[in-house]
Amino acid sequence: MAAELQVVTLPQEVFSVESRFVGLNATSQSIEVAVRPTGEIWRTEFADETITATAAKLKSLQPKVIVMEGTGTFELPVAGVLATVGLPFAIVNPRSIREFGRAVGAGGRPEYTQAGLLARFGELIHPEPRPLPDEVIVKLKDLRTRRDDLQQMIVLEKTRLGTASEVLRKDIQRHITFMDQSIATINQEFNRTVRLSAVWR
Questions:
Q1: Does residue 37 have a cis peptide bond before it, meaning omega lies within 30 degrees of 0?
Q2: What is the DSSP letter of 36?
Q3: Which residues contact 15 (CB under 8 A, 6 or more apart)?
Q4: Which candidate, 157, 163, 187, places its Cα nearest to that of 175?
Q5: Residue 150 and residue 129: Cα distance in Å, rounded?
Q6: DSSP code of 113?
Q7: What's the predicted TM-score (pTM) here?
Q8: 89 with 79: CB under 8 angstroms?
Q9: Average pLDDT for residues 163-180, to the nearest whole number?
């Protein structure tokens, strides 16, 4: 089961919170989110359900922009989910982030985790969000819905597996394997769709 969101708040100077700027850093292990100017930070493991939970929490914050680094890997599924819920985000070239980090003296400062640096970049640079075209968002929603349907079917088949006869167990297991492969293909297409969009470039 995915870990719950863990929230900490770093001491920060007093700012107006009318506009919030979010930095989001996704790796194979975790999602880290930092919010400026409030200093709020939370981390959770990288998993499908936590991506959805993170998007829902960010939706409630109504950020001006969510900044992610364009590595072409783990930010792709996150960006796709953010797009489907209508959140504004910008994917920034890693070189620009490195240069910005040097300019603000981020090295060794506790508020400048990678997500914190991305949030500060958003606050000072104001990168313009680049919404995905409507037809791309529709495609992403369709892929996401199909993925959810397959996951529900897998849960049902695994439930049947415990009480099925031997001949049926083999058939059910083949069906589960097929659906797992289908989900992997859908995930690849979801990420590819984001990667090929103008927002990632």
A1: yes
A2: E
A3: 36, 37, 38
A4: 157
A5: 32
A6: S
A7: 0.84
A8: yes
A9: 95
β strands within 60-126, DSSP E: 65-69, 89-92
Tens-digit pLDDT profile for residues 11-39:
444 344 469 999 999 999 999 999 999 99
Give the residue carrying structure tokens 């719950």: 4
| Residues paired with 172 in a beta bridge | none
Q: Higher-confidence residue: 121 or 18?
A: 121
Report the distance separating Cα 56 and Cα 42, nearest Å: 14
C-alpha pair distances (Å), 153 with each of 38, 122, 123, 195: 42, 41, 43, 28
Give the Cα separation of 110 and 113 in Å (integer): 7
Residue 88: both structure tokens together? 């504004």
**Residue the block writes with tokens 């489907």:** 84
Q: How many other C-beta atoms are found inside a 10 Å radius of the C-beta of residue 134?
A: 8
